[in-house]
Batch of 3 targets.
Target 1
Amino acid sequence: MVNKPHKGATIAIQPRIRKGAFFDAAWRHGCRKFSVYNRTYISSTFSNPTEEYWNVTKNVAIWPVMGERQVEISGSDAAEFVQLLTSRDMSTCSVNQCKYALITDESGGIVCDPIILKLSNDRFWLSTSDCDLELWAKGVAVHAPFKDIKISDANVSVVQIQGPKSPNVIWDMFGEEVLDLRYYWHRTVNFQGTELRISRTGWSGEFGYELYLENYEQGDALFDALIDIGKPYGAAPGAVNQTRRIESGILSWGVDMGVEENPYEVGLGRLVELENDNKFIGRSELEKIRKQPLEKTLVGLILEGPTIEANETPWDLLYKGEKIGRLTSLSYSPRLEKNIALGLVRNEYSTVGTELSVYTWEGEKPLYVSNLPFLPKLQTGDARALLNNSKI
C-alpha cells in the first residue's frame, strides 16, 4: 500500500507541552503550523516553505526556535563532567566559545549533537537537539565520581536571526561591536535593561546568529523589536528552512542520525578527538570503530522531476529491488530545481552516481547518489564584509 501525506493534521495545544517565550509572538505574526521538539512547541512555517527559503537566502529570517532547550551544567566539577559526556576535547574550549559536539553512548552511538556554550569555567549550556539530554546527563551523573554538579533545564528560549543581511539587523539592534563576534563564539548584549546572550551559530547554512532569552516575560518585546528593526532589510518571521539545511548537508538528530549510527558513518568523525587522554563515554568503542570498514554511509541523493512532498517516515532505498538503506530527509530545492535528500546506505552503494530507487507518495522513483553538500554553507566569514546598508 502506498502511503499518503497527512494533510490537514493538527497538534492539540495542551498544558504538558511547553510554549516558550516566543510562542504568542509567533502566533500573532501568523504561524499556524507547529511541531513538538523537546516537549516544546516549535514554529514550522509562517507563510510557505518556498517564500521562506528565498527570504533566508536573500534577506533575513527571524525564527523562534523555542524547542532548542539549554541543559545547564554547573558547579566546580562541571568542566570534568562535560568532558565525560562528549568526544570533543573541551580543554581547548575558552570561556565565551561554542563547540558543536557529539554525545555518544557506550557503543559509540550518537545520543545527541548539541552545541556546547562555555559561559564560565564552572558553567555550561548544552544547546540540545530533540533528545532527552537532560535525563541522559542526570543518569550519567548518578554513576560519575563527581560531587559538585548541578544539571537543569535553564528555561531559555532561542530565536535565530539567519540570512545574508543578519549583520545589519544585529548592528542596528545591539551596536557595531557585535559585528566582531567570531563564528562559534558568544557574548552578552543588552535589551531593554536585560542581559541576553548572542552566538554566531545557526541551523540554516547561511550567515546568522542565535539569541538566548532567559527572561520569559520579554519574549513578545524582543521578537517584535527584531521584526521592526529588520524590516528595512527584508526581515520576516519564518523557519530557517528544511531545504536550506539539506542543501548544506546539515544533519537532524533523530532523522539523519541517532543511537544506531556512529560518528564515522554520518561524516562526523572529525568530532571524535582521540589525540588526548580524555575519558568520555564510548571512547574505547570509537577507537575500535575508526579502524574498521564502514558498514553504512550517509550520502546525498538527487531525484529528478517534479516536486515530491517531504517524507513523513524514512523511506526504503532499493538497488535492483533489494533494500540497501533508507532515505531520511527530502525537500525540493528551488535553486537546483531538483528534489534533494539525505540517506543512509550500505557502504558499497555510497559511490557518487550510483543509481537507486525509492518508493515515494507517487510510487517508485529513480534517484542517484550525489556529493555533499549540494550547495555550500555560508556561515563563516566577516560580518562587516556582508553589511548591506541598502534598504529593500
Target 2
Amino acid sequence: MSNFDPTSISRFRFVRRAFDADSGRVELAYAFDDGEEMVETLVIPGAPFALDAARQSAVDAALRLLHLIAGVSYFKAAVPPEIVVDDGALDAETAALLTSIYENGLGEFAYNNGLALRGRIRFPVDESTGTRAMPTVGLEHRALVAIGGGKDSLVSIESLRDAGVAQTVAWIGGSQLIAACAAKTGLPTLNIERRLAPRLFELNREGALNGHIPVTAINSAILVLVALLTGHDQVVFSNEHSASYGSLIPGTGEVNHQWSKGWDFERTFGSYIERRVAPDLRYYSLLRPLSELAVAQRFARISGYDDVFSSCNRNFHLLGEKPSSRWCGHCPKCRFVFLALAPFMPKPRLLGIFGRNLLDESPQIAGFDALLEFRDHKPFECVGEGVESRSAMNALTERAEWREDALVRRFADEVLPHLDGDELDLADQLQPRGEHRLPTALAARLTNT
C-alpha cells in the first residue's frame, strides 16, 4: 500500500555534500521537509588525490554543481513548491542553469505525469552573490571520454585515436556490457561507482512520482569532477545534432527525451564550466556536427566491436545486471540502430550483429512507423529524427538485398507515396551541420572524413 503522498511535501532540500580526497568518496545528501536524509554516494578511482589551491577551488565548485544537478533524481519524487539550499542561496547564473536543466530535462517526466513544470521550479537566488574569475588548474592535454557501450562513443574514441589525442574511457555504474566494450578499446579505463540513495527506491515503491530524468546532465557533472581530480583537460561526450530534436506531441508541443544530450544543454553547461569551474577544462560532444546516420556510416567503417557493442537500453541497468542478449530486438533503439546501419553495412554483417532481420518482421510495423513519424510521433528514446529514418528506409528500397524485406516493401508501397521527395536524400543527411564546441583541429578532421 502506498504511504508516501507527494502532495504532502512542501520543501526539497539540498542538505550537504562531502568529498574525501583520501578515498575518492563523494556524498550528496538531500531531504524532503525535515525528513531523513537521502544520501547518494560515488567512489572515484585513483585516490588519494593531492590538490593544490587552484585545483581544490575548482573541485569545490564542481562538487557543488554536481550536488545541485544530481538532486533532480530526488526532487522529481514529489516536485514540491519550495527548493531550499541549506548552505545558502545561489547566484542568478547558477540558478538559471539549474532551472533549465530541471524544466527541460524533466519534460518527458512532466508529460507522462500530467504536470506543468514551467514557472514551478524556483531555485533560491541571492542577488548580492557575486561571481569571481576562476584560476586555471593546469590540466594535462588528454580527454576523459564517456563510453556508453554503443556505436556513438566508439566512433568518438576511434576518431580521437586517429587524431592522436591521449584518452581515458570512463563510465558510471556497474554495467558489464560497457565494461566489455571499454576493455575492447585497449585504452586506459576508469569506472566510477555510483549508488543512489536507498530511500529513493523505497519512495518509488510507496507512491513517489517517477519517470525519465536528464541522466546525461548528471553524468556530465560527474565527469567534470573526475576530470579535475585525474588531470584531464577535456570531457568528451558523443551526442549528435539529432539529439536536439524532440518528439512533437499534438496538443503539447515538443518533448525531448534526450534534452541533456542536445545542443542547448551542451552550450550552456560547457560555457558555465569554463567560466565558473575551470577555464582550462573543455566540455564538448565530438559528434555534435553529425546526424545519427553520419555516425552510423562512420561506425560501419570500424571493425572489432561487432561482438561487444550494444545500443539497446533495455539491456542497460543501473545496478549492472547482465542481460541474456545484447539486443532485445523489440525496442525503439534496436529498430533505429538496425535501420541506421543498414545502408552502410553488408547485410550479412548486420544480421550477424542482431541475430535476426528486424526489417523482415511484420509485427515491427508500428514501431518502425513511429521512427518514420508516419501517423505517430517519434518515440521517447535516443533515436534519430524522422527524416533520417525516412531517408535510410528510402535508400533501402533501391538496394536489391533489402527491397523485398517486409517493412522495406511496405514503405515503398504504403508510406513513400505520402512523403515529400525532398526529404528523402540520404546524402543530405550525411552532411556536417550546426554549431558545436569542438577544438578547431578536431572539428576540421571530423567534418572532412
Target 3
Amino acid sequence: MGTTNGYKQHVGSPTACSTTAAPTCGGIRGDDAVTFVRTHDIADLGEDMVGRTVTISGWIEDYRKMAKLSFATLRDVTGLAQIIIKDVNVPELSRQSVISVSGTIQETRARDYSFEVLADEIVVLARASHPLPVDPLGRLESNIDTRLNHRALDMRNQRTASIFKMRHRALQALRDTLTSERFIEITTPKIIGSASEGGANLFSLEYFGKTAYLAQSPQLYKEQMTIGLQRVFEISNFYRAENSHTGRHLTEFTSVDIEAAFMDYDDVMGVLERLVASTCRQVASDCVAEQDVIDCVVPTPEAPFERVTYEQCVGELRECGQEVEFGDDLLDSHLRLIGRNHPGFFFLTDWPLKLKPFYIREKDGRPELSRSFDLQYGYLELSSGGTRLHDPETLRSRLAEQGLDPAQFEDHLESFGWGMPPHSGWGMGLDRLMAVITGVDNVREVVLYPRDPDRLSP
C-alpha cells in the first residue's frame, strides 16, 4: 500500500465493490485516522440497486435540517444524489463541505430523483469556510474576474464544469480524427533561441546568459518534421505578447497545428473542415446534458465549407460603402460586415501575398496573391494556413524582402537542403473554437487559468 498526501490507498471488500459499473474505492485519512471507503461514483447508482449498501463521497450542495429528518444533496463530478438523514449521529454539516456517506439505496417520492440514499454513517472529510468568495450554485452571480480569481471553486458551478467537460471531449475528437487521417502527434520546444515568425509579439527571457523566447507557434519545427514523418500535428500552448484587451485574445493560448507533405492548401483546407465538422458532431452527440446546463446548441456544420476569396470580400465591402483598396488588411469592422453575409463556418482564401508570413507561397499566375486561407466563424478568425515555400533560395529572398535576416534562420534553412517535400499546413485556436462550440462570447470562459495583459495569477 502506498501513501499519498496523508491518504493510504486500498481496495474495499469484494462485497462493497461488487457492481456492474467499475467501482472506485477511497482510502484512510491520515490526519485523524477516520476510515472511509468509497464504493461508487454517484452516476453508478440507480433505482435497480434498491436495498444495496453503498458509500459515496462528494460535496454538499444543499442541506435542510428538520426536527427528526434532514435532507442533503450530494454531488460528485458524475452526478447528484439525495441523502436522507434519520436516526444518525450527524456531525455539523455546511454547504460545499466534503463528506462521505455510507447508507442504503431506497425508493423515493422526490420528483427530481429516481432513488435516494438513507444514511447509516456520515464522515466530514473537509469543511468549507463561509462565506465563500463565489457561489458554486450560481444563485448569487459573480463577474468573470471574481470567478477566475477563485477558479477551483468556480469549477463546482455546473455551467463551468460542463464547459470543460465539453473541452475534454473536443480534444479527444480532434486527436481521434487527425490520427485517422494518418497524422502523427509531435511536441515541439516552447523555449526557442530565435524568432519563429520574424520576431513580432514574442516574450523574451534570460536563458543562462543568452536571450531566449517563448514560442508563438510550432511553425518552423512542424515544417521540418514533414521531411521524415510526412504528416504531423501538435496540440499545445503557445505565447504571443499582444497587448490586446478583447474577448478573443490571450497571451497564452492553445493551438491545434498540422503540417503535411505532398498536400496543397486545398488539401489541408479539406482536413480542417472535416476536423471541425467531426469534432462539433462528437461534442454535440456526447455532451447532451452539458448543453442543457449551459443552454447552448453545438453547431454541427457539414463539409465542405463555403469558400470566399479576398477579392470577393473587397467587393462586398465596397457595396457596403467601405473604402477598401486591394492589398489592405481587413479590419475587425470589415470582418463583421463580411460575417453577416456569410454566417457560420467559411474559408477566406487567396490573400495578398504581402499580408502573409515569409513562408507562404504565391499563387501560380497571380504572384500578388498567396496560396493561403483563414477559417472564419462569421467575423471570428479560427485558423490561418496555406501552402509553404519549400525552396531554400526562394525562402532566403522572401526573408530579405520582409526585412528579416536569413542568418537568423540558418538552422531552419539548412533542413531544406535535405530533401524538403512540398507541404502545407495551418494553425487553429482551440480556445476560439471552444467559444464557438459552447456559445460563449469570451475565450476566458473556456480556459482554466487564462493569461492576458492584466492577468498573471492565479
